[in-house]
Every structure is written in C-alpha cells, then in structure tokens.
Amino acid sequence: MQKAHKQLQIALVFTSPRAVVQQVVRGSQKPFVYVSDPEGRYALRLNAFYYPRLYLLDEQNRVLYVQHYRVGSQSASMEALNRLP
C-alpha cells in the first residue's frame, strides 16, 4: 500500500511499553512509524476502543476513515485507499 501511495505514512500505535515496541521495530524491515501509547492518549484522542483498528488521517490529523469493528483488516485497507485524494 505504501509503495503505491508514496505520500502515505503508516503509523502503528501499540499499547505496549516503549521497550516492547523497540523490540518490534528491531525485527521489522517496514518503513512505518512505531508509537508506544501505554497510557492510551492517542487511543482516547481517536476514540479507539476496538483494537486493532485502521484510521486514515489527513495532514492536519483529521480523521478521514475509521475501520468499523466488524470490518476485516483487508477490507478496511481497501475502503481507506478509496478515500485517498
């Protein structure tokens, strides 16, 4: 997805402590942004009560798409891609 849409930045937000997230990053070759959010600040800001969940944000961090909890990850990815400008 990121190769096809160069302007897209993918961020993975974990509820795990920073040390655990750093271990995940070491084992990954993906050019994603990895964020540790054990206090749930980002989750609260995005009203993210179901995990995992896909969010599409614009440059001003406005929410363009939120994955419904009944929609699978692959379908959500396609729905989000259809909303890209």
How would you characterize the largest beta sheet? 2 strands, parallel
Q: List the strand order in the largest sheet.
A: 1-2
Estimate what percentage of residues fall within beta strands.
Answer: 15-25%
Mean pLDDT: 81
CA-atom Rg in angstroms: 13 Å
- Which class best fits the helix and strand makeup? alpha+beta
Helix content: 25-40%
Number of helices: 3
Pick out the low-confidence regions: none
Number of strands: 4
Distance between the termini: 14 Å
Shape: globular
The total tally of domains equals: 1
- The arrangement of helices and strands along the chain is EHEHEEH
Helix and strand arrangement:
Layout (H helix, E strand, L loop, with lengths): L10 E4 L3 H9 L6 E4 L4 H5 L9 E3 L5 E4 L6 H10 L3
Parallel strand pairs: 1-2
Antiparallel strand pairs: 3-4
Explain briefly what this protein structure is.
The protein is α+β, with helices and mostly antiparallel strands and 85 residues long. The protein is built from 3 helices and 4 strands; from the N terminus they run E-H-E-H-E-E-H. It is globular.
Describe the overall structure:
28% of the residues lie in helices and 18% in strands. The chain is an alpha+beta fold. The chain has one domain (11-82). A two-stranded parallel ribbon has the order 1-2. A two-stranded antiparallel sheet has the order 3-4. The radius of gyration is 13 Å and the shape is globular.
Features:
globular; two-stranded antiparallel ribbon; alpha+beta; two-stranded parallel sheet; 4 strands; 3 helices; 85 residues
